[in-house]
């Protein structure tokens, strides 16, 4: 039987560039409608010291026939369980948009249930958990959902123009939007790990003030980095974001 540390960990983890001698693992959590392959370029660009684990949610690509999960809490429970076999070395979490909320909830579980303090939480393109907006994109019809995706520019335009593909992926996207938009923060102890918030200065989903509010969710170091761009600013600034994360992760971390 293959060890989960040398092969894909079941259904949830994709390891595009295995680095078995790494000193830290970076867990990448996709946005609503995203898949593990979104982070392939990040995985490729990371130095040898960082082993990148990309999470694949149910309902897309090779998991497209599986039941959908439409709750951040439910997703966090499942991803947390899938990550435990990989906790033989420090874990860091990087999530964009919905993935940032998910990363926060996973960090809470690691600290609370296992006493594992993540090496870092990188929260990208997402307001702090304690902030709230009344968003209802998940209640729109299919055309309204597609219009939202086009406006944020996070989905391949070719996919949005293919009716057959759209019919296949829209249920998963709607479930993700429902998870992101119905997520409710439950007050509790702040994280102990460092938190870095990445945000775009023209993101319609996050103000700089909402991104800065992540500072209230950790007793560890906090850093805010603002980039030019909208919700998917990370596509234009990938090299700098990878560099910033790698620099932080290559400093001594707690085992």
From TrEMBL:
InterPro entries registered for this protein in UniProt: AB_hydrolase_fold, TEII, TesA-like, Thioesterase
Keyword hit for Secreted: no
UniProt keywords, alphabetically: Hydrolase
Entry-linked SMART domains: PKS_TE
One GO-annotated biological process of the protein: lipid biosynthetic process
GO function terms (MF aspect): hydrolase activity
Residues in Thioesterase TesA-like domain copies: 27-249
Keyword Zinc: no
PANTHER family assigned to the protein according to its UniProt record, in alphabetical order: S-ACYL FATTY ACID SYNTHASE THIOESTERASE, MEDIUM CHAIN, THIOESTERASE
Family designation: Belongs to the thioesterase family.
Protein name: Thioesterase
Organism: Streptomyces klenkii
Lineage start: Bacteria, Bacillati, Actinomycetota, Actinomycetes, Kitasatosporales
């Amino acid at each position: 039987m293959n060890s989960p540390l040398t092969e894909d960990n079941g259904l949830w983890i994709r390891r595009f560039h295995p680095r078995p001698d790494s000193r830290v693992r970076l867990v990448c959590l996709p946005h609503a409608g995203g898949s593990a392959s979104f982070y392939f370029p990040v995985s490729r660009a990371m130095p040898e010291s960082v082993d990148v684990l990309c999470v694949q949610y149910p309902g897309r690509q090779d998991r497209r026939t599986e039941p959908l999960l439409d709750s951040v809490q439910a997703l966090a429970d499942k991803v947390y369980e899938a990550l435990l076999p990989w906790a033989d070395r420090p874990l860091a979490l990087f999530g964009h948009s919905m993935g940032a909320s998910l990363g926060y909830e996973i960090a809470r579980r690691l600290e609370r249930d296992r006493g594992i303090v993540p090496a870092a939480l990188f929260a990208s393109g997402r307001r702090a958990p304690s902030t709230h907006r009344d968003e209802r994109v998940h209640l729109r019809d299919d055309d309204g959902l597609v219009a939202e995706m086009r406006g944020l520019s996070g989905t391949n335009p070719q996919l949005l123009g293919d009716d057959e593909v759209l019919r296949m992926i829209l249920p998963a996207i709607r479930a993700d939007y429902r998870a992101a938009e119905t997520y409710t923060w439950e007050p509790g102890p702040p994280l102990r790990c460092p938190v870095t918030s990445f945000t775009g200065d023209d993101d319609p989903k996050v103000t700089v003030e909402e991104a800065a509010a992540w500072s209230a969710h950790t007793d560890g170091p906090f850093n805010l980095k603002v980039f030019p761009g909208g919700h998917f600013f990370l596509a234009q600034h990938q090299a700098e974001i990878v560099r910033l994360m790698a620099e932080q992760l290559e400093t001594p971390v707690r085992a």
